Batch of 3 targets.
Target 1
Amino acid sequence: MDQYTAAFIAFFLYLYMYYLFGAAASRLLRLKNDPLDQLLYGMFVYAFIFFLYVMPMKFHYVKVDTIGRIWAVFLAIAAVTIHITMRKYLAEGWRNLGRSLREHKGSSIVVFLFTMLQMTFTEMYGRLYGGYNQTWFIGIVSNGADYNVLGVHDPSSGLLMEGFTSARYLCTFLDHSSVMCRLLHMNAMVEVRTVLTAIFVIFQNIVLWKLCLMLAKGKRDSALFGFFLCWALKNIMVYSQLLPGFYTYFRTYEGKGLVANVSIPLMMLLMWKMHQEPEKTENLWYSVFTLAGSMTYSLSMMFSYPFLLAASLPFMLIRKEKKKRMLLYVLVLGLIAAAYLTVYTLGLKGKLDLSIHYKG
């Protein structure tokens, strides 16, 4: 398949399935029927479902071809089922979104055009100019697609490794990229540095806009000013590897880039909403999706959550009338982070068998 065609198919397929999975979760849990929210949180739902599916397959050295065919059948069945059972719900959501866009046409057009411009610039010029991580993120995907098995070859040399890498084996978004490269006959460079780059840019702008809109208390003009002010500050500090701007332009496609620019700001937004409206359980559900799904991109989220929690806990606890509910929310999210941390630590300390016995 032509690589341009494969890239377009993968790009729109990802967004389409994110939206459908988000809509299904929204309907099941009776959350707000908003296609933009469903697209955003659906990415994390999709990532976590794939994580649960692919982990045992990876450890049993199931061929990527087999993993991909089963996953493709599952996606097709899921898409048809969601459309048949939720057609009225989906149509209602799009009517609501269309009404909102018409009411706020100016700001919507500005943010959309800026996102398209930024995505184009990042695709053409935003490339990591060197570094070992580039080899890791592309090599893992390329080896998985070329050798038809996940995670058993060294990303630098292509040689068989003695064990799964403890710092990376839980990051299954790379396995997903290998599967899609194999299914669509797509080059790993195209999937990672074109498709994922574009998607990560779009999602970080969605989150930043939502954050600015919340801080501006719904005033679109003020939110628009805040949106561009944030980008101006990020662009000024873009050459610092310790700040999110660097991951926007030079390491966009890495899991840490998603966590820094999408997951952490989104969790900050959700934790603030839980503080403001503790009676609304939808913010807890959104937080669960974000936290669980983000860790399949980078374990940096596992370490980031305790700092987010420490910063927000005092503000949560001053809501004396809702203290028990807030503590419950903290406990639920803490258990998710603790579960990942436990599995990661067991693998790091050798308590889980990560040795590779693949014979080829």
Note: The mean pLDDT is 88.
Target 2
Amino acid sequence: MKRKSKLTIFNRILAVILVVCIAATAYVINKYPVITEATEAESTDASFSEEINIDELVAGTYGGVEFNTIEDVVNYYVEAYNYTKTLTAEYTENGETQTYYKLVGEEELNVSNVLVEGKSNSIVDNLVPGIVSGLFSSDVIGLVPSGNRNPDLDTRTGSNDTEFDCTTSALTADDVAAANVVDNGDGTITITIQPKTVVLSMPGEDAQGKFFNSLGDITSVVESISVLTFSEGTIDENFVVTYSGGTGSATIDTSTKEITSADYEMLVHVDVQHASITVLRDKSASLDITYANHYPASDEYLEETKGITRN
């Protein structure tokens, strides 16, 4: 059975969180204007500059492989990604033997820095983890970007319902803001990549969507929420989703070019202006999303999440 689009669900979660946070925070701040838990917070500018969060590449030989440019690093990563996604293993799920990717991972979603009208509120901050945990169900998937743990079903949906194949990487040097390599001294190297900043990333179509499981067109989901309107301007002007600063690291066996472990952290900032919900008019809100993927998944995670065991 094809895995339901993770980020279609993800978008709906985000939309619910936004509505709840705007309504609840505005209610608390309006009803209890002197509440000590409500504090002014510095507003985050949604127009990010390209801030580099990793070390620059130092040209040289790492693990017996020569890397002189970012293009060298990206090309090697793509080769390793493509090879790793050809590797499969057998698992038992619901009593049946299944063939999935050899390297499957864990995922975690967190929402933080929730601000409404430039203010944070502990009451709403305490609501958010419960909302997220109640709506987001962790899954087991292949190396991101990925739509499934089954190679035969590993696709994602981009704009205009275009399906793209996640069994190979479309990442290029032009998509990357920074990259580096570390020699681990044990026959492996670790490549770390930071893709370029993108506003409203689409799966498989831009720097973030080629490297992470990006959210896709959140605006269409938000636009479908009947209780949410905008007092002025269009949704594209008032709902800005910026991907910036996220990184991914992959440890690669240089003798085979197999990725043996990896960690990805996608960072997303959502900024909403002039939002109105029923009697609450012309409110601004912002929040940060961290979507993390760790490979390989532990045996405990596989069992607890999907009842899967390695054979």
Note: Confidence is low (pLDDT under 50) at residues 25-47.
Target 3
Amino acid sequence: MELKIDYPYKVGFGTVSEAYKPYWNEEPHEYLIIVSNDEPLCYNSTVMDQESNHMASLTTLGYIDFDTDEHCSEKGTLLWEMRPDEYDSEIHKSLFKGGIIYHIRAAMQIDNNVLYPLEVIRECRMEYFLDNLYEAYVKENDIPIYLETKMFGNLLLDKTYNCFCSMFEYKGRTVSLIIRKDWQARDTVSKLESFVRDFEVHDKEMRRYAAERLTSLANELADKKGEAHITEEEFYNRIFPESIEIMIYAGYIVHYHDGGLFDNHSIIVKGNKKELNMLK
């Protein structure tokens, strides 16, 4: 079970243990790091004839040193000594997640690319240098990427379209859910969940909006085909939602099946808290 981490979080004992100090630079620096998707290793070791508490380690894909502005693109190691309560709770499995950028305070091992984290200061949303390292790692290892949600579980990234996708049942039909993969994706999740919880209200409003603006156009097309006219109420009842795309700042886009009114071309309604707009 994943544990919620409150930041800033003191890692282990918040300092390099006496047994390890000869192997690490004395002054810690602040770093941005990104790690692999591997589960942390956990083991005991003996240093200078002293048995340590349980150690945890992960592979780093690169880092940025805030103090020196060094940008490292070589794989390295994140290594730390856990407190007994950390080991018992298995918090090391939740502390660093692949693909997430962390701002940490850490000591660097002398002559090796190994960081000893003392504190996790915060998570960061975007840093192009580290994001590109992770993208290359994912591509090279063909690693699936997921976006965590409470309502829909883990959404798998569709790498062809660069978006996280899922679906839900609505009035006997399946509606697709889309979140574009960018640095705002995790912030968009709660907005999507809130929108879907109230979707019946949103759906009625959007279908009514579309009916008011497109019924006359549908009847113009019906004239050309020699078909009967429809009312706004009939238009309202014929269209149905097919997909929802949520954007953190730009609102939402809902694709509606046209019910055959426009030769099966989608009706697209874009909205936000203030207004609705027709895109098609």
Note: The chain has a mean pLDDT of 90.
